[in-house]
Amino acid sequence: MTNGDKAKDIANLPVLEQVNLLRMAARDTVPQEVRGNTKNRFYAHECDLSPRVVDAMRKEGHGEKIFSGSGRNSGRWYFPMEILDRALATNSSSHGRLKLYAESCQR
Fold first, then answer.
1. Whole-angstrom Cα distance, residue 30 to residue 62?
2. How many domains, the chain?
3. Using one digit for the tens of pLDDT, what is the confidence trace for 20-51?
4. Distance (Å, rounded) from C-alpha 57 to C-alpha 22?
5. Bridge partners of 75?
6. DSSP labels for 76-107?
């Protein structure tokens, strides 16, 4: 199963819900720095997630830009797989959805 397959349910959500869900998962995850290693990381564009999701996770202190080629536009933002796993667990549980709804109402 690819990361895109895992994130299909999240990618089908409205953009604002994607942002809130992954921001909440990013807050619960300790930032890790692994220079240039894409193992146990996901590429948000590959999962069809909104660019706003990338900005939200970067504001929470996550992400590493890894260049895949020599061009200026070859940089890709990778994030810890733990964030995606937490977001999937939150989205699939009723308690997680309730917590997400409560957090979105406070903003």
1. 9
2. 1
3. 999 999 998 888 776 667 788 888 888 888 89
4. 7
5. 67
6. EEEEEHHHHHHHHHHHHSHHHHHHHHHHHHH-
Domain with 69, as residue range(s), is: 3-106
Distance CA 93, CA 103 (A): 15
Residue labelled with tokens 């937490």: 86
d(CA 64, CA 79): 7
- Cα–Cα distances in angstroms (integers) from residue 33 to residues 2, 65, 85, 92, in the given order: 23, 11, 18, 28
Contact of 104 with 20, CB cutoff 8 Å: yes
pLDDT greater than 70 at residue 107: no
Overall pTM > 0.70 = yes
d(CA 61, CA 96): 22
